[in-house]
Amino acid sequence: MTQRPWDDDDRLLEDLAEAVRGTQPLADTIAAQAEGVLSWRTIDEDLLQASLTFDSSLEPVQGTRADPGQSRLLVFTSTPLSVELEVNQDEVVGQILPPGPGEIHVETRDGKEFSVSADESGFFELPPLPADAIRLRCDTPTGRVVTDWVRL
Q1: Are residues 77 and 95 both part of a single domain?
Q2: Structural domain of residue 63, as residue ranges?
Q3: Strand duo 123-126 + 72-77: pairing
Q4: Of the candidate ranges 33-37, 72-76, 88-92, the one whose mean pLDDT is the lowest
Q5: Can you point out the beta strands (E) in the chain?
Q6: d(C-alpha 29, C-alpha 6), whole Å
Q7: Residues 62, 35: one domain?
Q8: Over the stretch 89-132, which tens digit does the pLDDT of each residue have?
């Protein structure tokens, strides 16, 4: 390494300017690493995603789609938890499987969230829901699962 004489302010400022200009590759590296770290911020949610594996409204009933007045059954499956929902005209009830207590957090696309509790059998009832898509985040002693977004 060469020693640089900084016997005057101009030479010192030139060396500092050179050092700052030379940090651009470092800045690019830091930005790339920060981007990589941010991409991991939802990894827990991504790994715990419960996919919609059954929707009774999509199943044919005697050659036609389900009657709008009938209950709609939705099943979200993942490991280690699954969530079943029964949607009626005036209520939405559900169960966490395997059965057990838990906290159900309902999230809307606009960022609103509210919670209900599941009893010892995993049963819960949701209050009236918005017309927009929702998803559920279920926290239990067994684990956590987040459902796909769905319009009820």
Answers
A1: yes
A2: 47-147
A3: unpaired
A4: 33-37
A5: 49-55, 72-77, 82-87, 92-97, 102-108, 113-118, 123-126, 134-139, 144-147
A6: 30
A7: no
A8: 888 999 999 999 999 999 998 888 999 999 999 999 998 888 88
Integer CA distances (angstroms), 26 to 14, 19, 29, 36, 38, in order: 20, 11, 5, 15, 18
Whether 111 maps to a domain, the answer reads yes
Instruction: Decide: 136 and 112 in contact? Cβ < 8 Å.
Output: no
Q: Which residues pair with 135 in a beta bridge?
A: 107
Report the SS3 class of residue 12: helix
Q: Radius of gyration of the chain from Cα atoms?
A: 27
Residues 105 and 34 in one domain: no
Tally of structural domains, the chain: 2
Structure tokens belonging to residue 151: 């319009």
* pTM of the complete model: 0.64
Q: Which two tokens stand for residue 121?
A: 């059998």
Residue 1 lies in a domain: no
127 and 55 part of one domain: yes
